[in-house]
Structures are given as structure tokens and as C-alpha cells.
Design brief:
By secondary structure, this protein is α+β, with helices and mostly antiparallel strands. About 30% of the residues lie in helices and about 25% in strands. The protein is built from 17 helices and 23 strands. Helix 2 packs parallel to helix 6.
């Protein structure tokens, strides 16, 4: 009879397979051991690595320590002090609950555990190789725990081949320490490599100070705090200005119950909170801390505890988006500088800076009866207008700084806000065309035009349009605010946006994209001349809109250069 094809694995091989789920690379070792130190109540955690963690990972903490019996239990599979029954898996508030970290690490390394509880006369050291105990006994040691992991993957050489070079592995370790440190401001973290300090974060009095210290390393010059509740959860976030965003989510830190997680839907909710301030494909420098009732979150769905499951996921995501969105709208990213006002004059060369007659492409200014005059008490209205640079930028002087305003982005922001407000108030006036305009459309736009839902949206926006054959629509009226714009490309872009939208996006998201498209087609562009009166009117109008630091597509409206920076560049400081 042939040998059975199904057999029980040896304990050694089973341990190595389990280790593969938890110990992916040296950074995984650092993460697990440092989290155990946090659970032990440590106030200081020192981490030292050699050769990117391959040769050595040492984690020393001043936590509660373990007895000899507890140390031996800690390296056994499925040992834990955190859970007693299945229901305890919901709402865990600690890190080291899986009971697999230490035995998994021990299975693929040479492990040493030295520990001492406060009242013990001596400490205890336990040594293992490939998961098997090789030595144990009393040792002189201060309170707390010291764990050394040497020669990682020495007995699984195939795993070593998947590791990167020392520099990359060290970068992963630094990232793991930063993620943990961000959520625990009261703990002193220090990471050393090759005898040099790679990262050190001293204790901070609160989460905000730690976030500023940690995210400052990622280029966050300022952070805006957002706090709120919704859907049964509490949202606490620290948000950097949108112009400091990145093409990757590496600097966007998400936490649930102070545990770093990866959650695409949660990340999407945070990004959507920034709204149109972020260009598509950009991610903010931010730290989001979410507190959810214990019985409504499961953190035991990933071997490395990097994912979570919410009992009411959609309510959680909606709360994040609402709190972040409401806070971003009030963010003081355009606050005037605190530097003392110093008078200075930079008369621009006439060849570069011009004050020219108004461009014919400026109907929004000419017909705006709500503002016959620019505000002079706001940030933009209080600027001294100097002239136009390259028929694209408005050169202005503020208190102790020079400011360049992108005329197209600024005008687009104003037009977007007016379109949105008029639509919300059901007050979008329309201009009937003298002769209907036939517009050829592609199949995607034709399908959208034939949809009753699209027809309803277009009517609410001020358009009067109907299908006219399989590949043509007949345009009979346009929004009054946009009557001087070329209707053909604008309508095509609007139809495409409506066709590409999804139900998950939400109606307001889709409409905001449409408003941004309509605004872009209707305002002054780069290369259009603007007169002084027109430029000052635009500056004043910017103070009456939300999120005025960016256009609806996420591009910045202005560039600021302080007087000290100008003086430095001229060698005066």
C-alpha cells in the first residue's frame, strides 16, 4: 500500500510556517517586540540593530518584566495573558495578544530573553535556538526586559533571499518604530544602528506634540487638528496642508485604538475629507486616530495585526470623512504671518510685470452684482496689488512677504464656489440660446445624455439639452454664469464626468467634479491680461469662499515668499 499523501507536519516545520506569517523581515521582529514592551507598561524603549536587523535586533524596555515561569510560557505557541474566550477577540486594547510573536521569532533565530520583575532578587535569562531551549538561569539585570534576536532566518536560508539590502531593511525598521511611537507620546523611543542614533523621540505631553515631532520628519511644516464624533466612533486627526501631499500613502498614518492599520476604505475616507484640495492620486501627510467601541471592531483578522474589521464600517468611514472635511474647511492655512510688518518696495521691471487692460474673458467679474467692490479686510483683499507677471500671476505685497497668485486657479475657486452655492439654493439661472447648438458626442457621453438621471442633473445645473440622434445632442440653454464660455467642450466634459461617476461616490462628489469642470471652462486663463480693477476684485472675492488656498482640482492658488527669505537670497542676512 502506498504511503498516505496527507501527513502531520513536524513541530519544527509547523513553527517555521507560523513564523512566516508573523516574521516577514527584521522590521516585523522590531514591531512585535516593541509592541510587547508597550503592553508591559514601558516608559522607555531602546532598540539596537546590526546589519539591517539580520545580525542583531535588541529591544530593551523598563516595563513590568516577567518571572521565570512567565518567560518560559511566553515562548510557547498560543500563550497569552490577554484573552480567555472567543468573545475577547473583539475590542482588544493591547498589542501582544496573539501568543505567536515570541515563539515565531524564536523558531527562525537565536533568541535570548532576559527579564526581571520589580520585587525579584535576581533576573532570569532564557536562551533558545530555532525554538529549542539551550540555556536558562538567574542573571543580574535591572527591572524590565531585554530581548536579543541574532542571526535571523539562519535556519531558513530561502527566507534570507527575499530580504533587501541593509539600507532598505533599516528604513523599514525606522518606519515600524515611527508608527508605534506616533501613537504613544508618553514613551521615549530610541533606535540605534551601527552605534549611531537613527531615530529618537523624547516623551511628549500629548498626541498633538508627538504628531508634530514625528510628521515634521515627513515635511509637515504645520498640522491642523481635527476632532469630532459620528457613527458611534471618535475621530482625532492631525492634518498637514494639501500642498505637502505625496504620490504615495507612506506618510498617511491610520490608527484604530492606537494600533497602526492599513485600510483602503479608511484611507479613502480621509482623502475624501480633503475634498477637491487634493489632486487625484495624491495623499496627505496626516495621522488619523480612530476610537471605536470595543465590541464593534475586530483586530484579529491579519497575522501581523495590520488590518481590522468594523461591525458598522460605512458609518465609521462616513464619520471620518465628515470630521476631516468640516475641519479642513476651517483650517488656517492662509493665516497671515506673525512676523512684524516691515515696509519695503520692489518696483517691478516693466518688461516682466504689467498692469494691462482687462481681458475679454472675465464675465464673472463684470456681472457680479453681489460684489461691486473688493473686500479690504480679508487676507487677499488686504494685499497690495503690484501688477501681473507673465499674464498668469498676480504679484502682490503683504505684511513682510511677497505673494504670487495664480489667476486661473484663483478665479476657478471663485467660480466653483458660486456654482455650488447657486445649485444648493436652487437658484441657477439659465441663458436661453438664440439658436440651439448641435454637439456631436462619443458613445460614452451619448449614453450619459440619454439617462433620465443625467437629464435631471443637467437641468438643475442650468443646462437645457436633449438627445438628437445616436451621436448628437441639442443644446438649447446654458447656465447664465457661463454664457460667454464655449459650450461644446464644457458640455462634453460634464457628460463624461457624469458617465464616470459611481453610486459609491455620492451625488455631491459627482456634482463637485462637474462644478470644477464648469468653472475651469469659464474663467480667465494663463496668458489672459487682467487690469488692476479686475485683479483687485478677484482678490477680494477670494476672501468670500471656502478652501481659498487651492483650486477645485487641488492646485495651489498662491505662492508666498517671506521678506527674510528674500533678504537671505540677496545675501542681506
Amino acid at each position: 500500500m502506498d504511503a498516505p499523501r496527507i501527513r502531520i507536519l513536524s513541530s519544527d516545520l509547523a513553527d517555521q510556517i507560523a513564523a512566516g506569517e508573523v516574521v516577514e523581515r527584521p522590521a516585523s521582529v522590531v514591531k512585535e517586540l516593541a509592541e510587547n514592551a508597550v503592553d508591559a507598561g514601558a516608559k522607555r524603549i531602546d532598540i539596537e540593530v546590526e546589519a539591517g536587523g539580520r545580525r542583531l535586533v535588541r529591544v530593551v524596555d523598563d516595563g513590568c518584566g516577567m518571572t521565570a515561569e512567565e518567560a518560559r510560557l511566553a515562548v510557547q505557541r498560543h500563550a497569552t495573558s490577554k484573552i480567555r474566550r472567543a468573545e475577547d477577540l473583539w475590542g482588544l486594547a493591547t498589542f501582544g495578544f496573539r501568543g505567536e510573536a515570541l515563539p515565531s521569532i524564536a523558531a527562525v533565530s537565536r533568541l535570548s530573553v532576559s527579564t526581571k520583575v520589580p520585587d525579584a532578587a535576581a533576573g532570569f535569562r532564557l536562551m533558545l535556538e530555532a525554538g529549542a531551549e539551550t540555556d536558562a538561569g538567574e542573571i543580574g539585570i535591572a527591572g524590565g526586559t531585554q530581548i536579543e534576536v541574532r542571526d535571523l532566518f539562519f535556519n531558513t536560508p530561502a527566507r534570507q533571499k527575499f530580504l533587501k539590502n541593509d539600507v532598505t531593511e533599516m528604513a523599514n525598521i525606522s518606519e515600524a518604530v515611527l508608527r508605534l511611537a506616533l501613537a504613544h507620546p508618553g514613551i521615549h523611543f530610541r533606535l540605534r544602528s551601527g552605534g549611531r542614533t537613527a531615530l529618537e523621540l523624547l516623551p511628549h505631553p500629548d498626541l498633538g506634540e508627538r504628531a508634530r515631532a514625528a510628521l515634521g520628519r515627513r515635511g509637515a511644516s504645520t498640522l491642523h487638528e481635527a476632532v469630532g464624533e459620528g457613527g458611534g466612533c471618535r475621530v482625532h486627526a492631525f492634518l498637514a496642508p494639501p500642498e505637502q501631499s505625496s504620490s504615495s500613502a507612506r506618510s498617511t498614518f491610520l490608527y484604530v485604538a492606537r494600533r497602526f492599520v492599513r485600510d483602503r476604505s479608511l484611507l479613502h475616507a480621509l482623502v475624501m475629507g480633503y475634498g477637491e484640495l487634493l489632486e487625484k492620486g495624491r495623499y496627505p501627510v496626516a495621522a488619523l486616530f480612530l476610537e471605536v467601541p470595543g465590541r464593534e471592531v475586530d483586530v484579529n483578522v491579519h497575522p501581523q495585526k495590520l488590518e481590522v474589521r468594523f461591525a458598522r464600517a460605512q458609518e465609521v468611514y462616513a464619520a471620518v470623512r465628515h470630521v476631516v472635511g468640516a475641519s479642513v474647511a476651517q483650517a488656517p492655512w492662509l493665516a497671515a504671518p506673525s512676523a512684524p510688518v516691515r515696509a519695503y518696495t520692489l518696483p517691478p521691471p516693466r518688461s516682466a510685470v504689467r498692469d494691462e487692460p482687462a481681458s475679454p474673458r472675465s464675465p464673472l467679474f463684470a456681472r457680479d452684482d453681489a460684489q461691486p467692490a473688493a473686500r479690504l479686510d480679508g487676507f487677499f483683499g488686504g494685499l497690495e496689488y503690484v501688477g501681473q507677471l507673465h499674464r498668469t500671476y498676480l504679484v502682490c505685497e503683504g505684511p513682510g512677504e511677497m505673494i504670487l497668485v495664480d489667476q486661473h486657479a484663483a478665479h476657478e475657486r471663485v467660480a466653483f464656489q458660486r456654482l455650488r452655492k447657486a445649485h444648493q439654493q436652487r437658484a441657477v439661472a439659465r441663458q436661453r440660446l438664440l439658436f440651439p447648438i448641435p454637439i456631436e458626442v462619443d458613445p460614452q457621453a451619448a449614453a450619459a445624455a440619454a439617462s433620465p438621471g443625467t437629464q435631471e442633473v443637467l437641468t438643475s445645473l442650468g443646462f437645457d439639452m436633449e438627445p438628437f440622434g445616436p451621436s448628437t445632442v441639442m443644446l438649447r440653454a446654458v447656465p447664465d454664469l457661463l454664457r460667454d464660455s464655449d459650450p461644446k467642450p464644457m458640455l462634453l466634459d460634464v457628460l463624461h464626468h457624469l458617465a464616470e461617476g459611481t453610486e459609491a461616490q455620492g451625488q455631491m462628489d459627482r456634482l463637485d467634479q462637474v462644478f470644477a469642470t464648469m468653472a475651469c471652462h469659464s474663467v480667465v486663463r494663463a496668458g489672459d491680461a487682467m487690469g488692476r480693477e479686475q485683479a483687485m476684485a478677484l482678490l477680494g472675492q477670494l476672501d468670500d469662499v471656502d478652501l481659498r488656498s487651492h483650486c477645485p482640482h487641488g492646485r495651489p492658488v498662491l505662492l508666498r515668499m517671506s521678506l527674510p527669505e528674500i533678504e537671505r537670497r540677496f545675501g542681506r542676512t
